[in-house]
Amino acid sequence: MSSSARANARSRVPLPRQAEVVVVGGGALGTSVAFHLAEDGVDVLLIEAADLASGSSGKPVGGVRAQFSDPANVDLGNRSLELYEDFAQRPGADIGLQQPGYLFLLPDDADVARFTDAVAMQNSRGVASRMLTTDQAWRLNPYIDPDRFAGAAYAARDGYALPHAVVEGYAAGAERFGATVRTQCALTEVEVRGGEVAAVWTEEGRVRTRAVVLCTGAWTREAGRLAGLDLPVDPYRRQIAFTPALDPAPPRIPFTIDYGSTFYFHNAEPDGLLLGIADPDTPIAFDTEYDPVWLPLLQGAAERCAPALADVAVARGWAGLYEMTPDRNALIGEATDAPGRILYAAGFSGHGFLQAPAVGEAVRDLYRGREPRVDVSGFSADRFSRGLTTNESLIV
To answer: 317 to each of 229, 239, 374, 378, how far by Cα in Å?
Structure first.
């Protein structure tokens, strides 16, 4: 069945009258949660307001890595890498996983010191990252200007994959274990009776349930309100650009990031490059319209990092949404200040795709009352009211 035929079929699936758990959101997080719950024997309904991967999961870069400065983020990334490497067997799909590594370029000695500490911590948790000289970094990526940087950090196992393939793989896997996946079906209300979740209401009707999992990405603040929660997630536009096929064709290079500017680039088919940068002046908004006015910012950062790319042609581009929290770390947990069983996995601030496999496992275990393989307690949304936030220093 073609992808369009599958999408049409899921939009016509009859809505069940009841489900043990309703997962809201059909991106990488929602489908991963649905798959892991269904595989564990839970009766799951996944609802998505549009089509699968139509939100943030439809337009990310698809990066996968375990290089972070916080141990919990390292563990989520590392476990997710394991699961992505096994994706062809479980749930069973080709996700186009490429592992040329992630290369962080560090502008000054303070950044080198910070990353040296982070790499030591990563190594202690099983991540084979290492510090590089700028000449070593240049050998991995000859586009860069080694004289512009003080050092680099690299992990050869990192890389990128195809987000749509991941979402479809998880959704199809969930369906094989009995889950219902229904698209074009928005959540409109979480019904509470006697202090417990009794049902969810959708545009297509009511479904009895005792548990809801919100995996609603950039739309989480409003979805949280429907469930009686304050989940501080805001949308920010992020844009990327693609070059045409280049002559000569680019060598295979790592996913490369200038830590100072957030400019990044890596290989793209056919024989081109993908380029991106975070615009610090982007306002909070649900804006997914590509705006070429952004190109001078991109080109200026490219000139400083990789001068040969400063004037490279741009064939096309698009915009998507980052789902940002105040401290740039995810929200994962079960609500303690709302009636009934309401769980959430959202606000990943650009890291949702790369952490989706491990988070699906963790939410399954939280629902089942088991200790998750990765300790996600620090990602509870109540950290904001308790003053326990930290600012993740390796986020770009």
So the answer is: 36, 7, 36, 36
Name the pairing type of β-strands 264-268 and 234-242.
Answer: unpaired
E strand map for the chain: 21-24, 44-47, 63-64, 102-106, 129-132, 151-155, 159-160, 180-182, 187-193, 196-202, 205-208, 211-214, 234-242, 255-258, 264-268, 272-277, 316-324, 331-334, 341-346
Q: What is the pLDDT of residue 389?
A: 64
Query: Which pLDDT score, from 0 to 100, does residue 224 have?
Result: 95
Say whether pTM exceeds 0.90. Answer: yes
Look at the domain 3-60+163-233+327-386 and name its fold.
FAD/NAD(P)-binding domain (3.50.50)
Helix (H, G, I), strand (E, B) or coil at 14: coil
Q: Which CATH architecture has domain 102-156+235-324?
A: 2-Layer Sandwich (3.30)
Mean pLDDT score, 37-54: 97
Q: Is the pLDDT of residue 395 over 70?
A: no
Q: What is the mean pLDDT of the chain?
A: 95
Dist. CA 241–CA 310, nearest whole Å:
13
Helix (H) or strand (E) holding 396: none
Which residues of the chain are in CATH 3.50.50.60 domains? Answer: 3-60+163-233+327-386
Q: Where in the chain is the domain with CATH 3.30.9.10?
A: 102-156+235-324
Tokens of 363: 């939410």
202 close to 196: Cβ distance less than 8 angstroms: no
Q: Model confidence over 46-83: pLDDT tens digits?
A: 999 999 999 988 776 799 999 999 999 999 999 999 99
d(CA 139, CA 149): 14
Six token digits for residue 84: 């992505």
Q: Is residue 13 pLDDT above 50, yes or no?
A: yes
| CA gap 254, 100 in Å, rounded | 5
